């Protein structure tokens, strides 16, 4: 802004900061029904969350979801978030070569391939429960603000 008072010119900046804008989830793509494989095999099921942050995608700290087993009235994964990645599958998440399944690094589409273990697995760490699940997706940004959660229902048979 530019102003004149008598013959004196005064200028002031006319910009301002509105603070952090909370990130949001645009869409979630995940299966509605998953059929557990036979035997001691494992299948991988892709899950995607397209996200947006007006402050820039680089300000997103993480994208993830929790999995609540409705029939068992309990949280899966010990209640911890299952994280999705926007890494272009360039990072090895688990040895020997397990990646997120993400297609393009930095495009705002976060991905993960959910392992579903067959009914023949005897190790409790590699058993998938059947039933109805509520997957609640959420984002946290670098300002420690959270998006509005998005709920997705999944049935594992």
Strand-helix topology:
Blueprint: E1 2-5, E2 8-11, E3 24-29, E4 33-34, E5 42-52, E6 60-69, E7 74-75, E8 82-84, E9 109-117, E10 131-141, E11 150-156
Parallel strand pairs: 4-11
Antiparallel strand pairs: 1-2, 3-5, 5-9, 6-7, 6-8, 6-10, 10-11
Sequence stretches where pLDDT stays below 50 over 5 or more residues: none
Radius of gyration: 22 Å
Average pLDDT works out at 91
Q: End-to-end distance, in Å?
A: 65 Å
| Portion in helices | under 10%
Strand content: 35-45%
Q: Count up the helices.
A: 0
Q: Note the run of SSEs as H and E.
A: EEEEEEEEEEE
How many strand elements?
A: 11
Which sheet architecture does the biggest sheet show? 6 strands, mixed
Task: Identify the notable features of this structure and list them briefly.
157 residues, 11 strands, elongated, three-stranded antiparallel β-sheet, single chain
What do you see in this structure?
With about 160 residues, this protein is mainly beta. Helices cover about 0% and strands about 45% of the residues. The chain has no helices and eleven strands. The chain has strands at about 1-5, 10, 25-30, 35, 40-50, 60-70, 75, 80-85, 110-115, 130-140, 150-155. Strands 4, 6, 7, 8, 10 and 11 form a six-stranded mixed β-sheet that branches. A hairpin with a 2-residue loop joins β1 and β2 (about 10). The chain is elongated. The model has no long low-confidence stretch (mean pLDDT about 90).
């Amino acid at each position: 802004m530019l102003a004149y008072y008598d013959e004196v010119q005064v200028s002031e900046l006319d910009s301002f900061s509105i603070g952090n804008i909370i990130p949001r989830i645009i869409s979630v793509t995940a299966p509605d029904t998953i059929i557990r494989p036979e035997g001691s095999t494992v299948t991988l099921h892709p899950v995607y969350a397209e996200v947006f942050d007006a402050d820039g995608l680089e300000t997103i700290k993480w994208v993830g979801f929790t999995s609540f087993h409705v029939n068992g009235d309990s949280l899966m994964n010990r209640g911890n978030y299952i994280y999705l990645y926007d890494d272009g599958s360039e990072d090895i998440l688990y040895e020997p070569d397990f990646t997120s399944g993400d297609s393009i690094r930095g495009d705002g589409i976060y991905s993960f391939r959910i392992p579903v273990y067959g009914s023949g697995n005897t190790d409790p760490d590699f058993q998938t429960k059947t039933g109805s699940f509520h997957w609640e997706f959420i984002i946290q940004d670098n300002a420690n603000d959270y998006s509005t959660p998005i709920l997705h229902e999944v049935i594992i048979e």
